[in-house]
């Protein structure tokens, strides 16, 4: 099971907005440590590497990777 809750959801919305302008496709991975994402833009010039640690969430649960 995966569950993550942010106190201020607008932070996550801004992250998604920034990603949306740069990459067309991305894979999110969750673990007990947090959520990660790596994606390349379509021209293979920019690499996005995002780490959202579990401590940054109001509540966080990820039972499996």
From TrEMBL:
GO terms for cellular component: PCNA complex. Keywords: DNA-binding. InterPro entries: DNA_clamp_sf, Pr_cel_nuc_antig, Pr_cel_nuc_antig_CS, Pr_cel_nuc_antig_N. Residues 1-65 form the Proliferating cell nuclear antigen PCNA N-terminal domain. It comes from the Eukaryota. One of its GO terms (molecular function) is DNA binding. It holds the Pfam family PCNA_N. GO terms for biological process: leading strand elongation; mismatch repair; regulation of DNA replication; translesion synthesis. PANTHER family: PROLIFERATING CELL NUCLEAR ANTIGEN. This is Proliferating cell nuclear antigen PCNA N-terminal domain-containing protein.
